[in-house]
Amino acid sequence: MSALSSLPPALASLSTDLTITDSDIIAGYLRDESRFTEAGTPLAVLAPRTTDEVATCLRACHEAGIPMSTRGAGSGLSGGANAVDGGVVLTLHRMNTVVEIDRANRLAVVQPGVITCDLRAAVAEHGLYYPPDPGSVDFCSIGGNVSTNAGGMCCVKYGVTGDFVLGLECVLADGRIMRTGRRTRKGTAGYDLTGLLVGSEGTLAVITEVTVRLLPAPGQPHTLVASFPTLDGAGQAVAAIVDAGITPSMLEILDRTTVQAVDSMTRMGIGDDTAALLLVQHDGVDAPDVLAEVEQHCAGHGADVVVSSDPTEADMLLEARRQALPALERLGDWLLDDVCVPCSRITELIAAIEGIAQRTGLTIGVFGHAGDGNLHPTVIYDKTDPASRDAALEAFDAITQKALDLGGTITGEHGVGRLKTEWLRREQDPVNMQIHHLVKQALDPTGILNPGAVLLAQA
Amino acid sequence: MSALSSLPPALASLSTDLTITDSDIIAGYLRDESRFTEAGTPLAVLAPRTTDEVATCLRACHEAGIPMSTRGAGSGLSGGANAVDGGVVLTLHRMNTVVEIDRANRLAVVQPGVITCDLRAAVAEHGLYYPPDPGSVDFCSIGGNVSTNAGGMCCVKYGVTGDFVLGLECVLADGRIMRTGRRTRKGTAGYDLTGLLVGSEGTLAVITEVTVRLLPAPGQPHTLVASFPTLDGAGQAVAAIVDAGITPSMLEILDRTTVQAVDSMTRMGIGDDTAALLLVQHDGVDAPDVLAEVEQHCAGHGADVVVSSDPTEADMLLEARRQALPALERLGDWLLDDVCVPCSRITELIAAIEGIAQRTGLTIGVFGHAGDGNLHPTVIYDKTDPASRDAALEAFDAITQKALDLGGTITGEHGVGRLKTEWLRREQDPVNMQIHHLVKQALDPTGILNPGAVLLAQA
C-alpha cells in the first residue's frame, strides 16, 4: 500500500487488481530478450483483463502524461517492450483467450496474450492452420507477433504474421477503442489501418484483439538435409532451387560456425567437412517430387543429402536447426541480429560476415531463412569485457550496413525496437522518416506510447 | 495558347509538353467507368513522363492550392479518378515502362501506367507470374490496381494486389519524393507506409513506381463448370469445398439472372434449368485430384458438371464468366456493385438480392468470386427514367446494407472512390474515421489530393 500511495493520482486511482507495484515482480517486466538496449525503471506494471480495462489504463496515462510500454510475452529481440523511466509497463498476458474459431470462413479471433503455439494447436483441432512460426513460437504471444510483424520458418511459402491479420481491435493513446479491418478475405474500404498497426511495435496503439485468416491444414511435410563442402555450393543450390520455380515450405541455412557449435554440443557428427547446411521441407501433395528435385540441385552442388518422409526422422534432421541458437549461446554472451537481403545475395552476406568475424576477432554464427534471405548473424562476445562489447557492437553495425549495401533491410522479422532506431534512419529516406513522425503524431499526439521505440525524438 | 494563358500562373508555368488544355481532349479524362458519381470540370490535364515531372506538377498545385485527381487507365468503377472543378487531372499513362524484372529474386519494378496484362506477359517471358487479374486486366493499369488494392479471380488462392507490393516510390502532396518498403521478401523496418498507400486511391500521395513480388509460373489449370438446379445447392457445394480444405485457384459464381442474360446473348444453351453456375479452376500439380474432389461436391449437390484439362476447351467453359457483364449490359444501363461477405454467407446475400430485385422491379444479376465471398451485383435500370434511377440507387443501397448486415464489407476490390464515401462511414466506427482524417491531414495537409474521394469533408 505504501508503494501504491506513492503513485501519481492517475495510477493510484486504478483498481489495485490491475496494478502491480511490488518491485520484485516489476523486475520481471523491465525488458525483453534483447541485448544492448536501454530499459528504465517504471512506476508500475498494469495487467488488464479486458479491452475496457486497457482503455482505463490508457486514459489514466494519457491524462497524466505517463509513458507506456506494452508487453506481450517479453520474448522480443529488439527492445520494443522495454520499460521507460517513470512510465508503466502494460502487460497483456491476462488477455489470453481464443475468442472464436470460424471453420467455415477460415478465421480466428484471438486476444493478444494468446501464446502463438496455443493458437496453432487450437485451430489445428478444427483442421486449420495458422502458419506464422517465429523461433519463439512456444512462448511468444500473438500480440507481440502482430506488433513486430513476426516471421519464422514458414514465410518462404506462407508469408509473415501481417499476411494473416484481417482486422484488429485496439485502444488509442487517449483510451478510445477503435476497430480496423474486416472478417472477409478481401476488402478495400478505406485506408489499411490494420496494416499500419501491424509492425508498429506499440507506438501507435495497444492491440486488444486480432482477427486472423487461417488456411486448411497442410500435408505432412517431407524433409531434406544437405551438407555442403563449400558455402558457395549452398548458395548456388538455393539459387538453383529458386530458378527452378520451387517454393518449399521451409528453406533454412546454417553456416560453418553454427554447424560446428551444434556439433560440439550435440555430437551429431555433422561438423567436420560441412561449410553450410541446408534444411528443406515441403508440405504439398507434391512433396516427394519437389524434394527429389531439391536433392538433385543440392547433390549437383556437391552436397551430401538425406531425405525423409518419416515425421520422427524429420524431427531428428531438424534438430541441428533447433539447436542453432542454444549451441551458439554456449560459446558466450550473444547478440542476435536479424537482417534480410535479396535471396540472391545470401552467400555474399555470409562471406562478408566471415570477414567481419576475422576482423573483430569474434565468433559469429549465421543461421536463418535462406528461402527469403532473412538471416540471423549471432555475435558471440564477453559482456564483462568492454573491448569485447565494443567489438560486438562493431560487428553488429558492420553486418547491418552490409545488409543495406546488398539491397537488404535492417530487420526482416524482429522489428526496430530500441536496438535499431538509428539504423532505421539509415534505411529509410528523410522524407519517409518525416512521414513516420507525422503518422506517430496523428495517432499519439502526446507521445506516451512506447517512447524511444522505432522512432528517435526527432525526424 | 489562349487556353494556356487563362491558366493560373502555377499551371501556366509548367512545360506545355506536360499540359493538356484542349477541352476535346480533356473530355476524355473527366471520369472513370463508374455510374452515379460526380465529375467536375478541370482546368487542365497533366501528363508527366517522369517522377521529377510528377513532382513538378505537385509542387505547382500545392503552392497554388489546386486540387488534383490522379488517373491510371480510367477503368475504375467507384469514381476515384473523377475530375474536380477547378482542379487538374494527373494522368500517368505515359509512365508505362517495366523498369526491371529480377528473376533470381522474383520481383519486378514497374511504372504506374503499365497495363496489368502487359506486366503479366512481360514476367511470363521469364517464367514468372504476377497473379492479380482484375476483370479489367486487359486495359487497367498497375498504378490504379495499387491505388484501389484491386483483386480479380486469382484472389481465392493468391490474394489481392497489395499482397504483391513490396515497395513504392511516390510523390507527396507538396512535391517531395518518398520511397517506402523494400526489395526483400520480408521486412519490418518501421511503419508499413507501403501498405498505407495501397488502396488509398490517390488521396495520400501519387505513386510513381511499384516494386512487385512475383511467383514461379503456375501449372496449366484444369477447369470445371457446374450447373446447379438450385442456388442453395451451389452455396452448399462452395461450403463443402471450403470445408474439405480445398483452395482452388479460381472459384466463381453466376446467378440465374446472369446465366440467363449470358444465354440469351450467346445461345450457349446453359440457361433453362440453371439456378447458379460455378466455375472452378486449379493450377497446382494436384489439379486432376482437386477437380475430381470438387466435381464430387458439386454433383453431390445436384449439379451437372463438365471438367476439362484442355486449354481451348477450358477457355470455352469460362466464356460464360467472361460474358457476364457484357450480357447484363445489353439489358440496359448498369450499376455495378462490389461487396464482400464471409464465404459462408454468399447464398444468403444472393437470395436477399433476389428479394431486392423483386421489390424494386429491377433486374439484378449477381456474379463474382464465390471463393472469397466477393460478389458483383449488377443493377440494370434506365438512366433516362428518374424513377428507374431512384430504384437503382435504392437497390444498390439495400445490397450494400445487406452485405454489412452479413458481416461483410462495402467494397472487396473496387474501392470507395466517390461512390461509397457515405457507406465507408457506416462500415467503419467513428474513431476509425477520425484516424482516417488525421492520417489524411498528416500526408496531405492542404487537402489537394483527390478531394471528395474516400473521405467526406468532415469526420
Automatic annotation (TrEMBL), chains A, B:
Required cofactor names: FAD
Keyword flag RNA-binding = no
Q: Does the keyword Transcription apply?
A: no
Keywords from the named record = FAD, Flavoprotein, Oxidoreductase
Please list the residue ranges annotated as the FAD-binding PCMH-type domain: 38-217
| Entry-linked SUPFAM superfamilies | FAD-binding/transporter-associated domain-like, FAD-linked oxidases, C-terminal domain
Checking InterPro entries in the record gives: FAD-bd_oxidored_4_C (IPR004113), FAD-bd_PCMH (IPR016166), FAD-bd_PCMH-like_sf (IPR036318), FAD-bd_PCMH_sub2 (IPR016169), FAD-linked_Oxase-like_C (IPR016164), FAD-linked_OxidoTrans_Type4 (IPR051914), Oxid_FAD_bind_N (IPR006094), Vanillyl_alc_oxidase_C-sub2 (IPR016171)
Q: What is the name of the protein in this document?
A: FAD-linked oxidase C-terminal domain-containing protein
Q: Which organism is it from?
A: Tsukamurella soli
